[in-house]
Each structure stands twice: as C-alpha cells, then as structure tokens.
Amino acid sequence: MKKYWIWYPGDFEIHQGMLQNFTREERGMAWPAYWYVDDCYKNIKFERVYNLTESTIFKVITHQKGYITVDGNKFRVNEDIKVDVGEHEIVVYVFSSNQLPTVYIDGSVIYSDGNWLANNYVNKRQVGYNKLFKKITDDPNKIPYERVTLNPQTFTVKNNGLLVDFGKEINAELSFSKLAHKITVCYGESETEALDTVKCYYKQSNISNQTKLPKRAFRYLFIPEFTDRNISITATNVFLPMKNVSQFISDNKLMNDIWNISIRTFKLCSDLFYIDGIKRDRWIWGGDAYQDNFINHYSFFDEDIDKRTIIALRGHDQVQQHINTIVDYSLLWIISIYNHYEMTADKEFIQTIMPRMEIMMDFLLKQTNELGFIYGRDGDWIFIDWSEMDKEGTIAAEQMFLLQSLKAIIACKNILGEDAESYVQQFEKLKQNILRYFWNEEKGAFIDSYESGKNNITRHANILAILFDFIGKADCKK
Question: Strands 161-177 and 212-224, how do they pair?
C-alpha cells in the first residue's frame, strides 16, 4: 500500500516553478522572470468510486480549506468518515488562494494514490504525486530540504572591515549572533566582489542578531566598518540530496579537476529544478535544462528532477507564448521528453505529458509556412545560443530543431500506440525542403538562410544535422 499526497497533475511543479522564477534579486531589487508565468489551479476536486465489500473508515487531511462528499453527503476534512458496504462516490473539494491545493487520504481501503482523478472544473485527469510527499505529516507546500551547517574557514581584517571566507562557493542562508550593533554584509563569489561595497551583486544592511538572510550564492562575505573576529556566523546549506552514481578517473590531473568541478557545479544548479545558476538568474531556462538533462543521464541519473523541470517549463495546457519566449526552447522541450524516455523508459510520464506535448507541437506548427519551415513572430526570440549568423527569414538551425522535435513526438506517440501519421507527413515534408532550400552542394554544408541570398555558413545548423542524424558521413564534404 503506497499512500501519497495528491494534487492536480503538474500543479506542484508549476507552482514551485513560479516561486523559483521569482527568486532572483540584484543589488537590492527583486527581479522576476520576464515571461508569462503560470500558477497552480486554485480550486480542485478529487474523485473516485469505491465498491466496498465491508465498511471502512478514512480521513482526509489537507493544509488548505475544503470538504468531502460521500454520495452527495457533506463531511469535514481532518475528521474520521465511516462508509458502509456498497458502491460509493467520494469527492474531495480543496481550494486555496495562494497555495497548492493538495490532500492526503488516510485509510486501510480508501486512501490517496495515483488512481484518483483530479478535476479543475474544466479537465479531469489522473492525479499528480511525488515520492517526496508520502507521509501524513508532509506538506507539499513545504519542500523537505536537507540542511547542513557550514562554518567560515578564515576571518581577515581588511579595508576597515572583516572579510570572511567559507573556502568554497555555497548556496546558503545566513544568521548572526554576538552582534553588539547592526551590520551590513556584502556577498561575493570572489574576494574582489565582496570588498566592492557599491557594486557587489548581493548586499544587505541593518542586520541584527534576529535577522535571517535568504538563501544566496557566495564564497566570501565582507562586513564593512566591523573588525570583531569573535562574530558568530551560521551558514546553512539548503538542498535536496542527489547521489552522483558516475565516476571519471584519468591519468590527467587537469581533466580530473575539470570533471570534479563540473559535477559540483551541476549539483549546485540542480535542486528542485535545473536552474541556470545559483547566483544570478536562478531561473528555469529551457536551453539550460535540455543540456542538464543529458548531464544527468550520465552522472546522477535522477529521474524526478528531469520530470519536475519539464513540467514546470511547460505550464498549463494552453500555450501563451514560447518557453522563456524562445522558439528554440519550445522545440528543445519536446525533444527533451523523448530524451527522458530514453533514459528511464518511463511510459507513464509520456502518457501524462502527452496532452501538453501535442498542444505545444500544434502551437509550433501553426507558425510554419507552406514549406513547413518555422519562423519567428513578433515577441519571439530566435536564440541559437547567442550565435552570430544570418537570421534573415527562416533559418536552417531552427528547422533542425523542428525536425528533431517531430521525430521525438512521433516516437512518443508510437510508444503509446497512438496515431502519429499527421506528424510523419510534416516530418517528411520538412526533411525534403530543408535539403532543397538549405543544402549547398558546392560547399557541402547547410547555409544559414536561403532568403537572404548570402549563402552564409556557420557551424550551428551543420552540427545539429549531425547530432540529430539528419546527415551522415556520406553526405559530408571531405
């Protein structure tokens, strides 16, 4: 018997993703993500029909407001409910204006698992749940982070202040004691940054013994006009555990150091979601997540962070704009779903995400022209990794992403035994026209844009053509 806290599918990730994308701060200013952001649905009912062969008792626990109906009769949450023999329809209503509506149903026969349906009054789907929340005492609105206290390595009096070094980059909350007066703290990933009391990225004033500073990334702290080395500083590293199951050892010390630093950096940026960095944005970016997905495959092999990030990036069913406003990232989002399946063989996840995958693909295909080429619209960002290329009209690199995303959704449809013929036709049309309009026979490569007439060639489309198995060795110019 496995009991879980349950919610509308995707809502936990969407709600926490919104909170994550609101964590950025810079020089005393809050800086939310500059794209459309979804939040969880606020009003949910959970439904299930039981055919009981004996009477039983169950209880619905929730941290929000709500009530229960059994065959239309109302009952209170957090109280025992007795149900007699026979068929019964049980509906749990939960609502909250600012939290994720979620319930835990405790009983020997009637209990919360993945077989309940969640209804947002528009769509009814199998509930969402996560192994992080399986105890009656859990609260899905409070992430069960682990906390480890870290101590400063050195204290140095410098520039009429106290420079504190923790010995390595950390992502931690801070608290102080033994302060005789209020202080100012300047954070830095380098000593130089921490000592710059004007331009350091994080700075906070009026800190007392009662002040709890939020989780921030740093190695150094500088306290100007303060030289008492007896100060007590507690840094609490806050994280979700991830186990690195990979190993790399060579006879080259530099390569070993690069590997170890890379693994540590990846873990720092992998918590509830993949984020672009622990210091600056702290946002969830589709392109960063796509690369993290591959690194995770070969290092930590953590299935849950993959799924949480994919769901959070996508949001609710209706597509309001491209992921992070970037066309490439919407395409990479679709590709990443099949990549995740190749890692995990998780058919259940494909089944859950498929409705939103189809809606996203249809959104993408609506901005293709008669040749099947995708193009940017007003408000879209054609990114391709800050590249300097000919971006006039439709561009080859973007078509490579579209071709691979079509391949991904066709593969996922086949896994589920669903019809993918319309996507197959789009794929074949696009493949033929990419070769017809972007391939330069004389140069043996793909040009950036055929519409400009410049025949400019950069590495991006050509690398993607090879990575996505669109072009083989026989097609490449020797």
Answer: antiparallel
